[in-house]
């Protein structure tokens, strides 16, 4: 009933504001009577591939490994839950995992939201480059980042020298590193939408007497809410399942669920404890997703999106200049400085600054061992895996987002939530699950290279969905109707209307998926593969050995990884075609 | 030859019937205007014809063929949205050629852009050379013209307009109505338009359909509807305020305003009576009134009169000798401007 | 299970249609390995190992030419993860031979029965103390010592003798100098803990750690942090201003420092405290259910051949296990010989490992 009324009011009369955006039923939809058969069929068809993908490469393997842990000849051992959860050390892990994730998310939001604004609305020299730079941390292996961060926060680091403060082995180091990693998530997800919000709406509120902040809070913030919620959720999931950062910067005293699952599975082979912890992780993530769905459901609304190119301007007035300065300073200290340390170390050879370590990388393959690969080959391997993973993530995530564009019942929301689950599940759980499920023809993929991009795509898909969905849902349904009336089939209308409007979001999503797989380490390492080391794997190998040359080469290779990532992201951003041409 | 035929079409949102058993026919080359207030279901009617809205009951026939199984994009009708819904990511030319590309199926570069046809259409709507302009840079009137050109481009067998001139200022609106009417008759376009503005409807349409609460209240030529509103609702919607209960006996009716002559052959008994302002004539004798307000309407002056008894009365008089506010006048009624309406229907 | 898999397989046809289609841009180079199952199976032999496995390509080529087999190497995670994956896929292994189970994990591997007994040709040449499984389910391939390393420059500067034994480490002159790895997550961390168990017994080792703790031992999570960040004797540690001149690492670390010095130093910058060592022995075994058992056997033989044994030290920085294998000059010149490593039997490790690690964590980390 409620929906029916809203949609009736959506049939426009001249008295209504011309651009208000009451939801209007899409083609073929009968309001108030649920979906028509055709719409349901289309939705199910769109969902088929994502469902098959998740069923086969996530649900099935994870269920199997959990089942292996909890099921014996005498049946399910649910009493294991009580035993494991009663352990005080596990309780500590649960508590720490939760609160550090919450604190990291809040801190990231506080620090990155101004950044999202600056990137969305202000024009300044080097913006494109900086946008790529802030994304670089996201793809760096944690081993490398840990090194960089210690240089900043640890003994003798910048902060120690300047202020006498050491933050390593404190929670602050963990939290700041989480901000470092996830800054780009907020800037890109929230900023992507922010750039396309019509600034005139905020202006209208100002004209109506709202102060600058009040206008932002009442007009822009509600419009951004879905994107903010989506981005926060991702940050939470990432930090909830944080692994390397906690180990390296927190020291052995801090442990997250993810670390525990890894230990129990990969080291102790205590599958029943691991299964219990995995289930706990599932429950926690399920609760978060439910909370997220609950807060977001009624807040998304059709937005008037405009070309981002028209919303940006040079900073005006002292307030905007100060904000820009503050954001640039934050980025400089928090993101550029640690990265700069890596670059500096890659050039800091014993004989003074030089290219020695880079030259050593070039000779690496010549020694004849299989340990070192020529860096070009590692780059090529990385790019191949990342491209494959991105393609899979875009196909699966794009179809899923298309299926989810029109809101639906519980089943649809469940599907939405399901896509997010892999973010909260350990790579080792998935990797071990692959082993015991994908082991019979035609599914014997255990030793196939495709398994690596498949696992990486599991993490990429949520990015694609989360980034595209708010924008897809914000596309005015009547544009599709206009296209339909002009003779465009639903598919064609999607291609002609939705796709161009969400292309930017699509590129952002692709960039993320690509970056994530480029720097992905966990799955790449756990999944057995013919020896085709990617850049992160090569870096980890070098760091795992003594010797000055190895360390220097690791820094050099990390620098190359950063460059490859930054260049890839820059290229992606440049792909945006000429705005005035109506074609693509 | 009937192009569009609606048979008993109903649309229900939950309990509420937004469109209720509507029967309507539109002949080829005819311009039909659906007129009604907000919420009368007129926009939904257009959506039904376009296939954007499923019917709860009834049939939609185009050229005699039931459209139930025909999806939106194959119906071959055009719809110009109230707020245009121009594609923001395409320029004017690409917006106009969109429908041509969809029908033509051309895909490759250069193909399907139909430059000649686009230029012709832009010329037609008075925006020559606007092909390369960004949609966002257009004024409201220009957007409207582009939306029209876009809707016309694929030469739809039926063109539907939702509040076609809704957002324009009055002068532009009046000029465009004339232009549109000329354009449609030149092109021989069959048009189904909806509007809430009776002036627009009467100027544009061959036939007017007045809707109320999802039902058709009256259908006829503009003149018929104007002269013989079928109900008090229609009368009031057309802007007539002089409606009072009346007891008709023979050639006159008893009202609070006194005896009013009625046209010959009017139904007798308890009725309601409409006196068009033109039928309220100032004179020496008759109902005594005080002038409450007067408004110049270009060719005449509209007066609001407070009679000794009964509600206020609208009247018209010539520019010369119009009374001033506060003047006491007497009015008589001309039977030609009096309409007896069925009772009870408000 | 099997019917589920068939259904899953059918469903895959749909999903994979998309994924392979979209992925084919990624892959010609990799197809040569993925597609080997089409070749006559006896021609390919697959070695599954951990990430640290390395061999000189020429050495491997020579084996391939002599034996007629093509060797495919699969690496999957660290030693623990790689072994656990083998246990999970028991009966349907991904390869024919597994290399990389060490004495701390040996019992788990044997108890789970993932190996087929095979007495390798050349086993007679292997030093008998390494042949821990008399049924020959596993064959020793290499050994290495986990020892405390010291920063020579630091001790020369301070004019203190570097510590040599576990007992030395709790002495006041070495207070706040040692950094060790987490025994719960790091292989050298575990090895060093086991060294203390071997030396002081199941009763005494906790006391020793109490003393170590009182003497300011620092625990970090992994070898990379300990060696590259905290240890003052390494290149990374110097840049990171590491201030711990003692670190738990490997006996082979000093030769590696020389090999990868830039330029190569005449002498290693670090030394080994030979009285602090735990010896790791790594084994290989023929996997039960191997598709190419004959090839697997040949591969195990190859792993203890003189050629491979002599190639190994500079590839994996471990010691050969055969009597006749000559050590490279780098090792003889810059390495040390650990005469008396501490010892704990695989059985005792298997039985007590988790409990020891827990006790260690409670004692040292918390």
From TrEMBL, chain C:
- Top-level taxon of origin: Bacteria
PROSITE patterns in UniProt: PROKAR_LIPOPROTEIN
- Coiled-coil segments on the chain, per record: none
One Pfam family cited in the UniProt record for this chain = SBP_bac_6
Q: Which UniProt keywords apply?
A: Signal
Endpoints of the signal sequence: 1-23
PANTHER family listed in its UniProt record: ABC TRANSPORTER SUBSTRATE-BINDING PROTEIN, THIAMINE-BINDING PERIPLASMIC PROTEIN-RELATED
Its protein name is Thiamine ABC transporter substrate-binding protein
